[in-house]
Amino acid sequence: MLASRISNSVKQWVSYVGQLTLLFSCTVACAFTPPFHYNRSLAQAQRIGPGSFLISALVGFFVGMIIALQMAYQMVQLSAELYIPNVIAVALTRELTPVLTALIVAGRIGAGIAAEIGSMVVTEQVDALKAFAVNPVKYLVVPRFLGLIIMLPVLTILSDVIGIWGGYVICVFKLHISYEMFWKMTFRALSMKDIITGLVKTIFFGMIIAIVGCHQGLTVKGGADGVGKATTAAVVRSFILIIVMDCFITFVFYFLLNV
Amino acid sequence: MIEIRNLYKVFGTKMVLNNLSLTVRRGETKVVIGRSGVGKTVLLRNIVGLVRPDSGSIKINGVEVTNLNEKEYNRLRMEIGMVFQGGALFDSMNVGENVGFVLNEFMSLDKKTVQEKVRDALALVGLKDVEDMMPSQLSGGMKKRVSLARVLCMEPHIILYDEPTTGVDPITAAAINNLIIELRNKLKVTSIVVTHDMNSAYQVADSIAMFYKGQVIADGTPDEIKNSQHPVIQQFIHGEAHGPVTEDENLVFGHVK
After folding, report:
1. What number is the ipTM of this complex?
2. What is the model's pTM?
3. β partners of residue B215
4. Which residue has the higher pLDDT, A1 or B149?
5. Which of A53, A197, B209, B236 is 20 to 30 A distant from B62 in Cα terms?
6. Domains, chain B, with CATH or none
7. To 5 degrees, how large is the angle CA B161–CA B167–CA B171?
8. How many CB atoms lie within 10 A of CB B94?
9. Cβ separation A135–B70 shorter than 8 A
10. Mutation site for A-interface testing, chosen from B11, B68, B82 by largest number of A Cβ within 10 Å
11. Nearest residue of A to residue B76 by CA position?
12. Beta-ladder partners of A208
């Protein structure tokens, strides 16, 4: 009984990932097929970026402070508090800010995408697009896909910077590390590959948020109830896939590319 | 000309279209009547390619469309306009952008020309100075008229109307009926009108097809349908609560105690 339920769940997930892959392939093909409507992607980027900036900056700032405080708990005992800026810089840029920003954007934007497209499906707007010979993937999915790929790295860079400032507040004002020493240790630890590995992750996370949100929206069944379920599913599934993808990319960077 | 032969469509366990055949001549207005759920809208969606039939043939101007790929179908769709039951207006766009959608999407026209065409299309459906309104600010009847204006902007050769007069006031319904007649007379547009409104059906139809259980049980001129002795047709066109249709479906309507 249990084995059959597990087997069914696995089959459903494999089928789901297959559908996401199909939508992803179709989206990439449409993105490279003329006519190109850059203004739609920019409009989506405008919707995603400014609205998410404050919340990701706030989270970045507090996470920077939290890491500094948690590290201080251990490092002070070893008299190694000077290394706290190093840990903050590397942990934020390589791992925490990309993942946390992606999770925030998945909750905020991914849910919105699923709800918006889902309502379009139930009110026959997507059918109207098809009836007017407009490909819904090109019209609805591609701009959101490109908008997220553009904006997620930008939001992550901003969050990186603000997160380090959060760490600065604790290190300089609480742990009494001089500000020259803070910046010196931060820049000594931080290399371009740390920033780039973090940013590469965000590109994949942006793809996941867009494809999962759009897929949930496009496959809505029923009315308002279906839209609600699709919205919740978009957030939950994006969260799971972001964490799995993060693990996978970290594995590839560490073991295969040695960065 | 639209020729439909032996069309089948099943959703789950429900057979919606069951060996349905229908012919609409070029420039003809065919009204399709029948109870809700007999497959009228599904037929329109099959013609425009929103759903594909399980088997059977649909020929539009001699071209078999059931095996066209999306790219080929899209070329054909530029000649077919569909007025959706709920309007299906894009709620992120205002009325002007909705009506000019196809012009902006496919034709490289300047802004002024698009505005003029939009204004003309809206005037045809009796709307004025509504370009800047959002769909959420419109009544149901206005949405339907904007939806019709959006189709008129495409200048299609075939128009599929899904209940164009349902939910609109009698004056607007008469205006929409007149417009359907004018489009046939002046522009020779081929139309299929799905409706439950028998007054509208008699006014606009060159011929009326009655659907029952996924099939066409009668196809004739409005007079032939009016004078048909078929009990199902009689019950439907006279809107009687008791008769062969309700008996067949074991449908018993209750009474207020």
Report:
1. 0.89
2. 0.88
3. B212
4. B149
5. B209
6. 2-79+156-248 (3.40.50.300), 92-155 (no CATH)
7. 90
8. 17
9. yes
10. B82
11. A133
12. none
